[in-house]
Amino acid sequence: MTATAEYWESRARQFATQSNGLAAVCSYGMPWFYNQVTDLCQRRALLPLLSRHRQGRALDIGCGVGRWSLRLAAQGMQVTGIDLSEFMVGEAQRRAAAQGQECRFLAGGVQTLNLPERFDLILSVTVLQHIVDAAAAAASLRNLAQHLRPGGELILLEAAPTDGSARCNSQIFAARTQLWYQQALRAAELDLVEMRGCDPMPLKRWALPYYRRLPAPLSRSLSCIVAGASLPFDWAFGARCPGASWHKVFVARKRAVDGDAS
């Protein structure tokens, strides 16, 4: 098991079975309210896009406990979820069974993904930002493109500041610029057709480097105050302010070539 896989397996074992499992898949070490706000902003950005997909095959990369996989399955899609953590896969399977949804969940990573089928939709939420080597992240994006059918859609939600910032980077996280994603999508022979914002209010990213320097009670209180203050603005203006957003949603389609069925 790689160091990255060990990291996610440890997080899964600690948090995946707790409530909605957001602590396992959103911001590590942050209080429940902070992760709930993160989830709400992601849903606000993604659900209008995901609601367009109600049939065909979907691939959920970094599926975690299945929060997006189960929604896509409920809409009528045949869903395959992939996650580095075997524990996370097991929890996703348990939640799918509890909801009566038929999903396939597999342990694996985007860098080594090699499935025989091609998908109408591939969803990747905050996965590439955890591949800190830029060349490996670009190769992973090309691999995702290979798993799309002609005309299929890739939806990415990643930390992608417009002007770039490394102040929040770590050993397991790298925020690459909007331009990097645009160029990487083009190199993967994918056409960017839409870009949406998620969290344009800058309070959370300004405060993030300071949380671990503060005593735990003060850090938790500050993070909740910052999240609560950011939510109304992010909710109202996130989709309309992609340039100001720290996280962005990229919607790209695989180019159809002559002779391919769409």
Can you tell me about this structure?
With 262 residues, the chain is of the alpha/beta class. The chain has one domain (3-254): Rossmann fold (3-Layer(aba) Sandwich), CATH 3.40.50. Helix content is 41%, strand content 19%. It has helices at residues 3-15, 22-25, 32-50, 67-74, 86-99, 134-146, 178-187, 203-207, 216-237; strands spanning 57-61, 78-83, 103-107, 119-125, 148-159, 190-197, 247-254. Strands 3-2-1-4-5-7-6 form a seven-stranded mixed β-sheet, sandwiched between helices. Helix 3 runs parallel beside helix 9 (216-237). The radius of gyration is 18 Å and the shape is globular.
Question: What are the SSEs and their pairings?
Answer:
Elements lengths: L2 H13 L6 H4 L6 H19 L6 E5 L5 H8 L3 E6 L2 H14 L3 E5 L11 E7 L8 H13 L1 E12 L18 H10 L2 E8 L5 H5 L8 H22 L9 E8 L8
Parallel strand pairs: 1-2, 1-4, 2-3, 4-5
Antiparallel strand pairs: 5-7, 6-7
Helix pairs in contact: 3-9
Core attributes:
262 residues; alpha/beta; Rossmann fold; seven-stranded mixed beta sheet; 41% helix; globular
Can I get a quick summary?
The chain is of the alpha/beta class and 262 residues long. Strand 4, helix 6 and strand 5 form a beta-alpha-beta unit.
